[in-house]
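Entry for the shared binder. Reason: the reviewer on the internal report wants the predicted structure included alongside the sequence.
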Amino acid sequence: MRVLVPLAALLAVLVLMLFPVGTGFCTADVAVPVAGGLLAVAGLPLFIAGGCRMRLTAIDGLLGMWLLYVLLRAWCGTPEVPCLPAVLRSVSLAALYAALRLLFSYAVPSVTATEGVVALFAVVQCLLCLSQLLCGGSRHADFPFTGTFPNPGPCSAVFLVGLCLGFYRFFYPVSPGHARLSWACRALFMATLALCSLMLPLGWSRAALTGAVVCLLVATWPRMSSRMRLYVLGIAVVGGLLLYFMKRGSSEGRVLFYAVSSYLVARHPVFGSGIGTFFGAYGQGAAALHQHLPFALTCHAGTIEYALCDGMCVAVEQGLVGLLLAVSSASAVLWRLWRCSPALALALLGVLVVSLFSYPFQLLPFQLLLVLLSAQAASTAVAPAPHDLPAGPRGGVGLAFSMAVFAVLSAFLVFCPVRERVRATAQSRLIVGRDSPRLLPQYESLLPLMRHDAQFLFRYGQMLASCGRDNESNHLLAQGALVSNAPMLHVLRGHNYRHLHAPAHAERAYWQAHAQSPARLYPLLCLMRLYRQSGQVARARRVARVILSLPARSDSPLDMEIRREAKSCIMEQ
């Protein structure tokens, strides 16, 4: 029984990690709090009947302080920015963590079992990607495989996790004791190593490749001589430069992201700009810096769906206080894992390296992985020592009861709001993109639950503008600009202001769109047309010259058409 209970909990988390990842709310968001509540309900009777003990650890304290800070920051944040999605996700994960801590206090899973479940997750992703590569079925039109993710970037991070586990267990095999079980574990880790070694280069994620190199150095560094270390560092520097210049455009986009994010952190260094404000603040920051940065960087500015660095996202929204709590929590988990399972520690280290250049911890599977590893580390840290005194009611049953109540109550409070938003997201996908005034009542009914979705707000605003309701459209588009850095939100606002005969407001909207994405020609075209329509020929010509000075895209017919119109504006008398 003490073996099956933690194994069942591990498999439950594995199932949650394999749910398809989508934008917005999806079925997995409902399953997480349900799983947390059910595991807590099952864990409390087992804990009491088993006469177990439970103590708080530094990991519990740090994670609890971080959750409390997020809730307080959301409560004291910007009221017009919807922060409820982030709060719901945080509380759901906290409920699952509390339930796992309760179950793991009854019986701590062996590190071999946890490693096996994580390796199985990587193997399933590899097999799914191979199936997509050979038979089709990718979730992105531009990539041959994506696994359960929207693109192959996060999938490569999963390959890195499997590679770290397989690599470590190749040199340090596990010996569970039972011959058949030992053979099965070795076969699983060898299969993980083979499949992930094959798929990681195919994913061609520079962040994942960098993480693999870092993990390899950490694992082999103590065995190297001083001369070998110098050689390895030199090779690593050269390899890093090659990776930078092989995809220079993407690399410069990352540099721009760090520059804008650092500017935003400097504006609100202590407590950040607020939960859920990253994308709106990023658009404003990119617009403020576009004249102070070289065009070689600003030309890569565009719409982003995820923050390109998890740490910078935390720093912008939660400030240095939130970043300190996040780094302290991750460091405590990593340190404890290194003592009980270096293989899991290497896997977590690899994902942390990837998170410096990508967004794994903004996706539910990696958040669940972090919750699982944190619960494993915290539960392993409280193994009773001979000199420990028996836990009293407050340290044992009382604490376990508090954990169970927190998990069940959190799951109960989160379940209904999440389920409503999952249904609203599914309904919105049925109507978004369909142009018909008869859909306006459906848009209006979904609006209270979809204020966090910039695409929904843009389509709704576009629909209102087509019906002549320009002021209402601008109100929705302004809300969309708080949760997205898409320049088309400002372009459509400019169109509405032109219809309302407010050229000054239209001019500001077009300039904002251009500042957020200086390489795009369409905002400048709209601005040039506005000046020509209002008789400001000199300004129109200046904008036309700016259009012609930007790099040409010969593969875009729209780009060439805009340039022809700009030339005609300059040539006309």
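Summary line for the report: The two ends are 89 Å apart (CA to CA).
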